[in-house]
Design goal:
The chain is mostly helical. The chain contains 16 helices and no strands. The protein has helices at 2-11, 14-37, 42-58, 64-87, 89-92, 99-110, 132-155, 162-173, 183-208, 210-217, 220-225, 233-260, 288-315, 320-342, 353-358, 363-386. α4 packs antiparallel against α7, α12 runs antiparallel to α13 (288-315) and α13 packs parallel to α16.
């Protein structure tokens, strides 16, 4: 236990922690600010708020009988816009008295070339008019998506494998496309997660990679082998690495989840990810909360795999330069795997690169577990090799 504490003390060096904190701030500003800062933008803001209202009123799904009430809401919104237009002199000057008149006028304007924009064109989209133009556009699009949802998914069966077609048939026949979920929330969590996972893996490399290399560089290894514990010291070091990984990942997950929770998307925790608005096909019937939990689970598995690989690379590096030449390519491979393959279009999505290539349901989980098993095998071999290798 005393040696474990000593190894943990070496890993959690104050200088490294300060560097990680500074790097985290810079990384967050460069890559994580975008999905946080620009989540509520114009159309998506209206769509997000409307989905919240429907969830409060109808639950996590919008049934056919409830759709009639939604259509009435849309007509009431148009009537409200008509009232605003009738009261506004800038519209009456153009002979516009209803929203229908405005739509026709805007359609004619779109066909004109080289013209100066008029003040009245964007009035309904301004704060002065409560952005009612965005509300109407958003409402119309959502109603359209609801009307064609099953027809659209039926058309998606073309050029799909037999297993994929069976999955689509299940969604259609069992009416699983009525879920209420803003498409902005799904796209945003994917964008945020891929960068958050990237930083977590980078921080693991920075914190753990130098551990064993530092001992070899300072000739500490000979003293360790001559101690009472002998070559079993490496087992203790691996334990310290895994324990440190668990602590670091928990801290960073708490921070990243806490920051992201300020957006309020946890409101949709129990809403299904299969929805008429987010026309994507997933292998599993998950709620938004279950989807987030799966993302966290994969992050933990990948983190342990990265820790094991970092430990092995550190063991077989005699100095920091050789270690650097090893860890940089490993990090690049992991980063590309996360951005291009693992969370390409979201987890368990038909359009995800891994899913397109293999056609295997849940291949994202299996690939993460595979990386973990490879790292575990490398660590076991390293510990076994330590018993007979020379200094």
């Amino acid at each position: 236990m005393r040696i474990l504490k000593y190894e943990l003390k070496k890993i959690w060096h104050p200088g490294v922690l300060v560097a990680l904190a500074i790097l985290g701030v810079v990384f967050g500003y460069l890559f994580l600010e975008m999905p946080l800062k620009y989540f509520y933008e114009q159309y998506e803001k209206e769509q997000y708020e409307q989905m919240k209202q429907w969830t409060k009123k109808y639950g996590t799904t919008l049934e056919e009988n409830e759709y009639t009430d939604v259509q009435k809401e849309f007509q009431e919104l148009i009537a409200r816009a008509d009232t605003m237009i009738k009261k506004e002199e800038r519209f009456s000057k153009e002979g516009i008295t209803t929203y229908e008149d405005l739509s026709r006028a805007l359609l004619c304007i779109e066909e004109e070339v080289e013209r100066e924009p008029q003040e009245w064109e964007n009035l309904l989209y301004s704060e002065e008019f409560d952005r009612i133009g965005y509300q109407i556009d958003n409402f119309y699009d959502m109603l359209f998506c609801y009307d064609i949802r099953y027809q659209y998914f039926e058309e998606k069966k073309e050029n799909k494998t037999a297993v994929q077609q069976k999955r689509i048939d299940d969604l259609i026949q069992n009416r699983k496309l009525d879920g209420i979920m803003p498409f902005g929330a799904m796209g945003n969590i994917n964008e945020y997660s891929r960068w958050a996972i990237t930083f977590i893996l980078l921080s693991i490399l920075i914190l753990l990679a130098p551990v064993v290399t530092r001992d070899r560089l300072t000739n500490m290894q000979q003293l360790q082998w001559s101690s009472k514990q002998g070559r079993k010291v490496l087992i203790t070091q691996l334990g310290a690495v895994l324990l440190s990984t668990a602590i670091l990942v928990i801290i960073e997950l708490v921070i990243f989840i806490g920051v992201y929770s300020t957006l309020g998307t946890q409101f949709f925790w129990n809403n299904p990810i299969h929805t008429f608005e987010y026309a994507q096909i997933f292998w599993f019937d998950l709620t938004y909360g279950q989807y987030v939990i799966c993302m966290i689970g994969i992050t933990i598995v990948l983190s342990l795999g990265m820790a094991g690989i970092a430990f092995v690379l550190s063991r077989y590096s005699r100095h920091y330069i050789s270690l650097l030449f090893k860890v940089v390519p490993v990090f690049v491979i992991f980063a590309l795997f996360i951005h291009v393959v693992l969370i390409d279009e979201g987890l368990f999505n038909f359009t995800n690169m891994l899913s397109r290539i293999t056609g295997i349901a849940g291949i994202e989980v299996w690939s993460a577990v595979g990386i973990f098993l490879i790292a575990t095998t490398m660590c076991i071999y390293t510990l076994w090799h330590e018993k007979s290798c020379e200094v």
